[in-house]
Design goal:
The complex is a heterodimer of chains A (193) and B (284). By secondary structure, chain A is mostly helical. Chain A has ten helices and one strand. The mean pLDDT of chain B is 83. The chains are: A mainly alpha (193), B mainly alpha (284). Chains A and B meet through α2, α3, β1, α6 and α7 of A and β1, α1, α3 and α4 of B. β1 of chain A pairs antiparallel with β1 of chain B.
Chain lengths: 193, 284
């Protein structure tokens, strides 16, 4: 952990001084993750690449604003998710969709009163994966982002909260809601009574 | 079976490892007794595992190369030293480009062969269908001319009967009436002769009718025979065309399969960068 932290400190120092090797190291260490997270939020390979490039350019232009209050990886996750969400907003604006992502919409998204367990057999079906993918896209961007960071990236809830700039309990609510809505989506689309 | 959101939250926290020791113990005690919550726990764990199976495309070497180039553009604007793009990355991108070009050539060649096959099969089937139509058409003409001949015979027979009956009822009856004026005896037997003429006309009409009927039936039988022949020819020709079409479809299917195989191989080669080595071995 300490060794990792030292590595990260050295990386940040290199980035701040504009050292090309530090940027090469940054790409080798973080490009895969940036692309993966951006893709999960945007579900589009070209846009994910754009978001990834934008995130690296942001690091290059604004590394001086990183004060070290959080881990560099947390900060970078934040940069990536912001780049992806910005692209998502632009896309929705182009398509004339409603782009209000306010708090009430997020936290107040209608949830089912009751939850049904899903049969194992159903969860194991091949088609379930496709429905899950569609279900992920049906989530609001904020819920999806929280879910991606926690469930797919495996970040601890505390980290998810830091990346999203919200409290840990709010992050937990988003992840739970995302999961609950996904379960409901699966039940509905795989026609479970 | 259903569960309230609050309980679901608690189980989700348990799965996520967010409960403290006391809460965890309490939930485990509850789980031992509650079948419904056990099922929900199983669902949550399974769903979590399945979500991780959802496909995420990997970052391609091309996208990574473009990232290096984009950062270098920005650094060049500021006059800062450029990043060194790893040689392995450049080589990988070049290899994939060569594989992609080769795959595109293969696919294009197979597609052209398939298109030729489709055109050839289409032309052959059309030729067979055309010949069949001509043969069936000839038989159809036979049916029509047989029908015309039959109708002509029927009309002829009907005409003959009408002439005979007309002659008997008008000319011969007039002869009887005229002879009646020649003497009292002839006048006396005239009604008998007239009724005989009427009976002769009736008999002639019946014979004529029977003959007409026979002629019509003969014509119909001839026409039916021709029609059956024409239908058989039609069926035979359709079968011939269908056989050709099926044979052609098989060829087209094979050609299509070949294209698909080439496309899939090309895609696999692009992904794995395989053909690069093959090309290198061939000294390309």
């Amino acid at each position: 952990m300490e060794h990792g932290q030292t590595n990260e400190d050295a990386l940040v120092a290199g980035l701040k001084s504009g050292d090309p090797e530090a940027y090469e190291d940054l790409i080798e260490r973080y490009a895969e993750m940036a692309y993966r997270v951006a893709y999960r939020i945007l579900q589009d390979e070209d846009e994910a690449e754009d978001a990834m490039q934008e995130a690296f350019l942001t690091v290059y232009r604004r590394i001086d604003s990183f004060r070290g209050d959080s881990k560099f990886s947390t900060w970078f996750y934040r940069v990536v998710t912001n780049a992806a969400l910005d692209l998502l907003r632009s896309r929705q604006r182009r398509q004339g969709q409603d782009i209000s992502w306010d708090q009430s919409e997020e936290e107040g998204a209608p949830l089912p009163d009751t939850v049904h367990p899903l049969p194992d057999e159903l969860l194991e079906r091949q088609e379930t994966l496709e429905v899950l993918e569609q279900g992920l896209m049906s989530l609001s961007p904020k819920l999806r982002t929280a879910f991606v960071l926690f469930e797919l990236e495996g970040l601890p809830m505390k980290e998810v909260a830091k990346v999203l700039g919200i409290s840990e309990s709010a992050a937990k609510v988003r992840v739970h809601r995302a999961r609950l809505l996904l379960q409901k989506y699966l039940a509905h689309h795989l026609q479970v009574e | 079976m259903k569960l309230h959101e609050k309980m679901w939250d608690r189980i989700a926290d348990y799965v996520d490892g967010l409960l403290d020791e006391k809460e965890r113990q309490a939930l485990e005690d509850h789980l031992r007794e509650c079948h419904e919550c056990q099922q929900m726990l199983a669902t949550l764990k399974k769903m979590r595992a399945r979500v991780r199976d959802v496909r995420t495309p990997a970052l391609t070497p091309e996208a990574k190369l473009r990232l290096y180039e984009r950062l270098n553009e920005e650094r060049a604007k500021r006059g800062e030293p450029l990043l060194r793009i790893p040689e392995a990355l450049k080589a990988e991108v070049q290899a994939r480009a060569r594989v992609a070009a080769k795959a595109a050539r293969d696919i294009s060649r197979e597609s052209a062969a398939a298109a030729t096959q489709v055109a050839k099969t289409g032309a052959e089937t059309a030729a067979v269908a055309g010949k069949g139509m001509v043969r069936t058409g000839k038989k159809g003409v036979d049916v029509i001319s047989t029908a015309a001949e039959g109708t002509k015979d029927v009309v002829k027979e009907m005409g003959k009967t009408a002439v005979d009956v007309g002659r008997i009822t008008t000319v011969e009856s007039a002869e009887v009436i005229r002879s009646a004026f020649k003497g009292p005896f002839r006048a006396t037997i005239a009604p008998v002769r007239l009724s005989l003429k009427g009976m002769k006309a009736g008999a002639r009409m019946m014979t004529g009718g029977a003959k007409t009927m026979a002629t019509a039936m003969k014509g119909t039988a001839k026409m039916l025979h021709k029609s059956v022949d024409a239908s058989l020819t039609g069926v035979k020709e359709s079968a011939r065309t269908a056989k050709k079409a099926v044979e052609g479809s098989e060829e087209v299917r094979k050609a299509g399969q070949k294209v698909l195989k080439t496309v899939l191989k090309g895609m696999a080669d692009v992904v794995q960068g395989r053909a690069e080595d093959e090309d290198a071995n061939r000294g390309e």
